[in-house]
Design goal:
The structure is a single chain. This protein is of the alpha/beta class. It folds into 3 domains: 191 residues, FAD/NAD(P)-binding domain; 98 residues, 2-Layer Sandwich (D-Amino Acid Oxidase, Chain A, domain 2), CATH 3.30.9; 51 residues, no CATH class. The chain has 12 helices and 18 strands. The strands form 4 sheets. Strands 5-4-13-14-15-12-16-18 form an 8-stranded mixed β-sheet, sandwiched between helices. Strands 7-2-1-11-17 form a 5-stranded parallel β-sheet, with helices on one face. Strands 8-9-10 form a 3-stranded antiparallel β-sheet, with helices on one face. Helix 6 packs antiparallel against helix 7 and helix 10 crosses helix 12. The longest helix has 26 residues.
């Protein structure tokens, strides 16, 4: 029997953030209604309301572990359905600032999986629960009384009453307007304008491709190098290849321009893969204008019965693959703070927002530390950015020859460690020493080999 903190919880959106929240709420509310405007596919397929679903998604180490806690056995299920285990120390090659980072021994593994397969597996789990209903409908607003949100108004005129509304509608959320219509306060926002444009192509994967690596990433080199690319092994014996460029409005939209773009990257590995592998899709394109963060943690007055999660709370630059991972961490936090506060009042919301500021802030700062290296980037530039940018470049250069530094750098990227660990005294000394022998800036550098 569910230990109910209320009769009904409503989740707006059936993406990763919404599905994770629904799992948590199913254990604490008598009834959970997930409202999604899309007609959800019966299998692992894309959907119209998720244009980014066709592109590369990375589930970082902390994200995989968090989803595993929410949905026990998920990793094994994904791999059984074709997803790919990857050792981030030996099976991932990262090219940045003129060379590949050094390989290292690591116990951390991630699962490379398509967004469509991941969502489908989570939906299947929720479908087996007796108190979760997924309803295809469009939300038109919030219902409220006093300082509490009391439900969701649907486009057809009906209202679904609730004790808690979890907004997981993504970066396009309209809840600021909906809250204001009820006379409730709305949060301030921060944005980072990057005008990122990117394109994706699916390729057939053979066992010997890329020398046995599971992923190759070529990252941007600001301020002049705006282009990047990545090839990741995923389910269905496929490579998903994404090419992108900062501050550009015209990503490659056909195979010929896709190949031409790949050839302009500093290392030939991705271009060679595209030329040799069988294409399985047309080129999909998308644009990402800006990262957006809503600062609920700064609000003095919070509405009861309402919580924003996932991209509705903070929408990250997709280059850094933080979105799904942060959403999974937030879902776990939602369960903890509901239990601690025994309900969905403003104290619960305040404690939740303040707690998740840690992981949200770390991911936000990691993105800012690179995005503002371009003078065209808009938004509030961090204080002391130039000094931190110079040091981060030295760390990245040093990571080309220092396994220790790359190990620590990858732990920060995967949100295992906070960014400040890169300034630890032992790493400062390692950085100075290793920078003197960083890898040469040449496209003739061979791909690292898994070992």
């Amino acid at each position: 029997m569910v230990e109910a903190y209320g009769a009904t919880a409503v989740v707006l959106g059936a993406g990763i953030a919404g599905l994770g929240a629904a799992q948590v709420l199913s254990e604490r509310f008598s009834r959970v209604v997930v409202i999604e405007r899309d007609a959800l596919p019966q299998g692992p397929a894309g959907r119209s309301g998720l244009p980014h679903g066709e592109h590369t998604h990375g589930l970082l180490a902390v994200g995989r572990e968090s989803l595993e806690r929410l949905f026990p056995g998920l990793s094994a299920e994904l791999v059984d359905r074709g997803a790919v285990w990857m050792d981030i120390g030996r099976e991932l090659a990262v090219w940045q600032l003129g060379g590949f980072r050094a390989g290292f021994d690591c116990t951390v593994k991630v699962v490379n999986v398509s967004r469509s397969l991941l969502e489908w597996c989570l939906r299947r789990r929720l479908a087996g629960l007796g108190n979760v209903e997924v309803r295809q409908a469009a939300a038109a607003g919030l219902a409220g009384a006093g300082d509490r949100v009391t439900g969701v108004r649907l486009a057809g005129g009906a209202t679904v009453s609730s004790d808690l509304v979890v907004d997981a509608t993504g970066r396009g959320t309209r809840s600021d307007r909906w809250l204001a219509q009820l006379g409730l306060p709305v949060p301030t926002e921060s944005t980072i304008g990057v005008r990122l444009a990117y394109s994706t192509l699916l390729l057939h994967r053979e066992g010997g491709d890329l020398g046995g690596l599971r992923m190759v990433a070529q990252l941007q080199t600001p301020p002049s190098g705006k282009r990047l690319g990545g090839a990741m092994a995923i389910d269905g014996d496929r490579w998903i290849v994404t090419l992108g460029e900062f501050h550009n409005d015209h990503p490659p939209a056909d195979r010929a321009s896709f190949v031409e773009f790949a050839a302009s990257l500093p290392h030939p590995s991705i271009a060679q893969l595209i030329e040799s592998a069988e294409p399985l899709s047309e080129v999909a394109v998308i644009q990402f204008p800006a990262s957006r963060r809503r600062h609920f943690e700064r609000m003095r007055r919070l509405p009861a019965g309402y919580l924003a999660v996932g991209d509705a709370l903070c929408s990250f630059n997709p280059v850094y693959a933080h979105g799904m991972t942060v959403a999974a961490v937030e879902a776990l936090a939602l369960g903890r703070f509901l239990d601690r506060h025994r309900g969905s009042g403003p104290d619960m919301a305040r404690a939740f927002y303040r707690h998740v500021t840690g992981v949200v802030g770390s991911a936000w700062e990691l993105a800012r530390s690179v995005d503002f290296a371009y003078p065209q980037t808009t938004g509030r530039r961090p204080v002391g950015f130039a000094l931190r940018d110079r040091y981060l470049r030295r760390v990245i250069r040093a990571a080309q020859t220092s396994p220790k530094l790359n190990h620590r750098l990858m732990h920060v990227y995967h949100l295992i460690d906070r960014p400040h660990v890169l300034a630890a005294p032992d790493l400062l000394l390692t950085t100075v020493k290793a920078t003197r022998k960083s890898a040469p800036d040449t496209a003739d550098t061979p791909l690292p080999t898994p070992s």
